[in-house]
Amino acid sequence: MTHTPAPRRGRMVGLATALPPLKASVDEVWDALGKARGRRMPKLQSDEGARTRHFAQPLTSLMERRTQSQQTDAYLEHARVLARQVCCAALERSRIDVADIGLVVGVSCTGVVLPSLRSITSGHIPIEPRSSLPSSCPR
Q1: d(CA 8, CA 11)
Q2: Which pairs from 92-98 meet CB under 8 Å and 24+ separation?
Q3: Domain boundaries of the chain, sorted by first residue
Q4: Dist. CA 90–CA 97, nearest whole Å
Q5: What are the pLDDT tens digits along the chain (139 aa)?
Q6: Sign of the Cα pseudo-torsion (38, 57, 22, 14, in order)
């Protein structure tokens, strides 16, 4: 009887996050929404949750009407840059050889694109893992 060794356990060796460059307070977001809709928007009564939001484009441009295609194009334009930043930072922090990477997990909570952001950015990120697991938060 031959013995098959157990597979090596995976481990996380690099982690990074990336945020879009523009910031706005929750109050600024609500004010922009109110102006875009021509009326004052009701604010949440609770002070819980995030007080600052990060954006890739100015609030004024985000309040303009866009088609789904325009929205997706804008997301991809900025998501590619952020994906590259975060992958390079995680790789640098890991201090391991690129050839040793077997899995990449990516999470994006604001935009969902098909094919996945990972497949779209594959030529722009300096790793080519044997497998990847793109993910996105449910809306």
Answers
A1: 9
A2: 92/14, 93/14, 93/15, 93/16, 94/13, 94/14, 95/13, 96/13, 96/14, 98/126, 98/127, 98/128
A3: 17-65, 67-124
A4: 12
A5: 676 666 677 778 888 988 999 999 988 888 888 887 776 656 666 666 778 889 988 988 888 888 888 888 888 888 888 888 888 888 889 888 877 777 777 776 655 665 565 665 666 666 655 555 444 444 3
A6: positive
